[in-house]
Amino acid sequence: MKKAGILNRHLAGALAELGHGHEVLVCDAGMPIPDGPRVVDLAFRAGVPSFADVLDGLLAELVVEGATAAEEVQEANPAAAALLTDRFPGLAHVPHERLKELSAGARLIVRTGEARPYANVLLRCGVFF
Which of 10, 20, 93, 96 is catalytic? Predict the structure, then answer.
């Protein structure tokens, strides 16, 4: 058994299959999940695991060259907005409806147990070299 890194076998396998330019949506428990992308649902109960914990775990495993969030996060969820701005200084914002449309093109969706609105971010994978 692995002793470090991501232990969830579904998530670890999905991350290993990602390549440059692929997108990963990290979302709260309320985000509609489109048909098509691979989904790893980590939600256990409201708030567990948190958006921040899942995001930080993924960032330890992925190279990210860009990120997009809903513009509504800035007013509706200042804590998530601050977290995203801290992690992604060049964070792009789009209307929430547009983020939902873009999520259909994601290669992977990781659903957290977050129960606060607009705790969602679309990550674009980079390369480590």
Answer: 20
H-type helices in the chain, by residue range? 9-16, 51-59, 73-76, 78-87, 96-103
Q: Is position 93 annotated as part of the catalytic site?
A: no
pTM: 0.95
Task: Tell how strand 23-27 and strand 92-94 pair up.
Answer: unpaired
The pLDDT tens digits for 94-113 are 999 999 999 999 999 999 99
Contact 39, 111 (CB under 8 A): yes
For the purposes of burial, counting CB atoms within 10 Å of the CB of 104, is it exposed (0-12), middle (13-18) or buried (19 or more)? middle
CA distances in angstroms from 11 to 76, 86, 96, 110, listed in the order given: 29, 24, 25, 8
